[in-house]
Amino acid sequence: MTIYEEEHDLFRESFRSFLSDRVTPRFEEFEKAGIMDRSLYPEAGRHGFLGMAVPEEHGGGGVKDFRFNAVIDEELIYSGGGGGPGGFTLHNDVCTPYFIEYCDDEQAARWLPGIATGELITAIAMTEPGTGSDLASIATTAVRDGDEYIVNGAKTFITNGINSDLVIVVCRTGEGRSGLSLIVLERDMPGFERGRNLDKIGQHSGDTAELFFDDVRVPAANILGEEGHALEYLQFNLAQERLSIGVTGLAAAEAALGWTVDYVKERQAFGQSIASFQNTKFELADVSTEVEVTRPFIEQCITQLNAGELSAAQAARAKLWGSELQGRTVDRCLQLFGGYGYMAEYPIGNAYVDARISRIYGGTSEIMKTIISKDVLG
Ligand SMILES: Cc1cc2nc3c(=O)[nH]c(=O)nc-3n(C[C@H](O)[C@H](O)[C@H](O)COP(=O)(O)OP(=O)(O)OC[C@H]3O[C@@H](n4cnc5c(N)ncnc54)[C@H](O)[C@@H]3O)c2cc1C
After folding, report:
1. pLDDT score at 85
2. Which residue ranges does the chain devote to CATH 2.40.110.10?
3. 305 - beta bridge partners?
4. CATH superfamily, region 231-377
5. Of all protein residues, whose CA lies closest to atom 27 belonging to ligand 1?
6. CATH homologous superfamily for the domain 123-229
């Protein structure tokens, strides 16, 4: 039983070939450079792997079906590539929906075609040096001056921070929770500087950067939706963002299980294969049970999202469970690789360091529990 149909299977095959031809052979290069070659975005766009939900009139696929996004998320992980290639996930699952939902006609004509072709790479900047979980404390300001906003402040930990052309910046335009707005900053606007490409413990091929805004004059025409509605708009897509991390978490656990099964059958110790030890069997039995139990839940969440019925609490459960499953599975599987598991050349080693962030970004596990407990307790 699966929610995927023939068209998703064909899309999967096609994206898998793209990864094995164009991305996987260069993955080491990207890991060393700390960034993925941005030319892969237009390549992915040409093949229809970006902007699947962007309306056809703006050059997109015109299909709002998160199963296509999930196929991309899963295949990226199965291929052993996180970080840079994971920028496709951020572009498709996290940023593009805001443009589709909140662009007016002029903005849609200006931005959506580039988003669908990959000529315009997107990012979203919520987190600041002084605030992450507590979005209501955002301090970056956007002050209206005639037909422009003047933006001042700083953001940090921004995925696609270096490669991005369009950054949705959460800015303070007024007081309190209803004083936040989404304003799109474009590459090369005077006063918009990129800081360091941050040195992370994992996801090395992904560019994660600081952004600085010093009196950046942004046309008022770059606001998404209405002033003061940022928290409501963020709420609109947070469920999809969190489900996306849940999908990735499950895929990472599935991938780790597959790599480990192959390894333990090959590796010998004490004259027998590692697979023959009872501990190995029990570990893999546990992991496989958790993976099998999780898949229907995640697929049910995808179905609910497609039907517009995925609640904030259910998305938080998908994120919490998927990311925690990912963390404990890669840890248990790496143990069965022994010392080789600690070597960067084995995908399980990369999967281990890449996994750690899943419990933090998109809202930490503690924040997910806060959301879920409100649903449980009322
Ligand atoms: C690789 C990477 C990529 C990222 N990409 C992006 C991006 O593209 N855009 C973006 O805007 N941000 C991004 N982030 C930021 C990320 O979303 C934040 O780091 C995350 O939301 C946590 O915020 P914080 O780091 O300020 O931690 P804090 O909010 O300071 O939290 C510190 C600890 O306190 C706990 N805590 C906080 N509040 C509570 C509470 N109410 N109850 C219980 N515990 C609590 C947290 O769970 C955590 O354990 C990224 C981060 C990383 C590392």
Report:
1. 84
2. 123-229
3. none
4. Butyryl-CoA Dehydrogenase, subunit A, domain 3 (1.20.140.10)
5. 132
6. Butyryl-CoA Dehydrogenase, subunit A, domain 2 (2.40.110.10)
Here the tokens at position 329 are 């599975």
Q: What is the pLDDT of residues 286-307, one digit of tens each?
A: 999 999 999 999 999 999 999 9
Best of 182, 353, 361 for a ligand 1 pocket test (most atoms within 8 Å of beta carbon): 361
Dihedral sign, Cα of residue 26, residue 360, residue 230, residue 128: negative
| pLDDT at residue 172, as a whole number | 98
Q: What is the pLDDT of residue 173?
A: 98
Tell me which residue of 305, 233, 293, 296 sits closest to 68, measured CA to CA.
305
CATH number for the region 6-121 comes to: 1.10.540.10
Rounded to the nearest angstrom, the distance between the alpha carbon of 93 and the centre of ligand 1 is 19
Q: What is the mean pLDDT of the chain?
A: 97
357 lines ligand 1 (CB under 6 A): yes
- At 119, list the tokens: 């000529």
Element (H, E) at 143: strand 141-145
Q: Which amino acids are annotated catalytic?
A: 241
- For 12-30, how does the pLDDT look when each residue is reduced to its tens digit (9 = 90+)? 999 999 999 999 999 999 9
- Examine the pLDDT at 1 and tell me if it is beyond 80: no
